[in-house]
């Protein structure tokens, strides 16, 4: 055991207690996709999330690759990663836990006033408050506060202090979103027009309106892989309407609102839109 890299020794200890783990490279980042999973070949987002638990033998897809199986953790694809790893991460939700990530002193002060006491792990800039019970993960639920549980990973920083308590309604309430309202896109989006003055080749506004309505419906009806659905929908809309000049910010706002109602953040919407434009060479 002494010949094993320190991160792997820590990982095996955690895995033995039922905590799914994975290696992190410099910058607290997960390892990149293997060739079989690169370029969305497996249906997931590189370095982030795949549609379900990762079945690749390599260290792919961050939280989805986390495991408690020592045979996997010590297999050749993983041991190569452990030799390069600088720290260990774990999947809180799969361990039945929820981590409230308090990123600064102000967030910590807020938690002390509004959340029940539980196990606390100190971080470089703030604290992790860990509760028993899993829920969906959400970023930026308030200034300096993220929730990491299912479909997320967190860096292992030690066992912390204090007695872990049950996940309170006060934390669940942080993830409840206000009713979505139609608004402008978070950042202005400039769409190129087609050559020849940008005349719309669709000849009728009804074609565009029907396309936007179908795109909204596709996002709204997504039951899984919401990230991939949003990106694919944005890609389809831009492919059909992005070059003729008829797509307005009001249309974009409709799509963003539908995505945010499914749990996407404004930043993720903007990133997906930008990535779709880049993929189409816009």
Low-confidence stretches: 46-53, 180-198
Gyration radius, to the nearest Å?
22 Å
Q: Helix content range of the residues, please?
A: 25-40%
Share of residues in strands: 5-15%
* Alpha plus pi helix count: 9
Structural class label: alpha+beta
User: What profile does the largest beta sheet have?
Assistant: 5 strands, antiparallel
What's the number of extended β-strand segments?
9
Form type? globular
Order of helices and strands: HEEHHEEHEEEEEHHHHH
How far the N terminus sits from the C terminus, by CA atoms, comes to: 53 Å
Order of the strands making up the biggest sheet: 5-6-4-8-7
> How much is the average pLDDT?
81
Q: Any chance you could write out the topology, listing elements then pairs?
A:
Layout: H1 6-16, E1 21-25, E2 29-30, H2 70-73, H3 76-84, E3 87-90, E4 97-102, H4 105-114, E5 119-122, E6 127-132, E7 138-142, E8 145-148, E9 154-155, H5 169-174, H6 205-220, H7 226-241, H8 249-261, H9 266-279
Antiparallel strand pairs: 1-2, 1-3, 3-9, 4-6, 4-8, 5-6, 7-8
Helix pairs in contact: 6-7, 6-8, 7-9
Structure description:
The N and C termini lie far apart (53 Å). This protein has nine helices and nine strands. Strand 5 (119-122) and strand 6 form a beta hairpin. With 282 residues, the protein is of the alpha+beta class. The strands form two sheets. It has a five-stranded antiparallel sheet with strand order 5-6-4-8-7.
